[in-house]
């Protein structure tokens, strides 16, 4: 995609419009960082649950192999 840039003088934005654009950019950055952080936490939890399940299964199989009830 190609963007055509214009000199700042031709944009004709008011101070209010610039502040709205700045605020929307800041909110977008905030929401993006929150979603990325939440996804990382959920991924760590998922990995931990999978690891715990695999450990419990392995322990049960080892006990079953020697004739003990899990």
Report what the structure shows:
- This protein has 70 residues and is mainly α.
- Helix content is 73%, strand content 0%.
- The mean pLDDT is 84.
Helix residue percentage:
over 70%
**Main sheet: strands, sense, barrel:** none
- What would you call the structural class? mainly alpha
Number of strands: 0
What is the chain-wise order of helices and strands? H
Q: Which overall shape is indicated by the principal axes computed on the Cα atoms? A: rod-shaped
Give the C-alpha Rg: 27 Å
How would you summarize what this structure contains?
It contains one helix and no strands. It is mainly α and 70 residues long.
SSE topology sketch:
Elements: H1 15-65
Keywords:
70 residues, mainly alpha, 0% strand
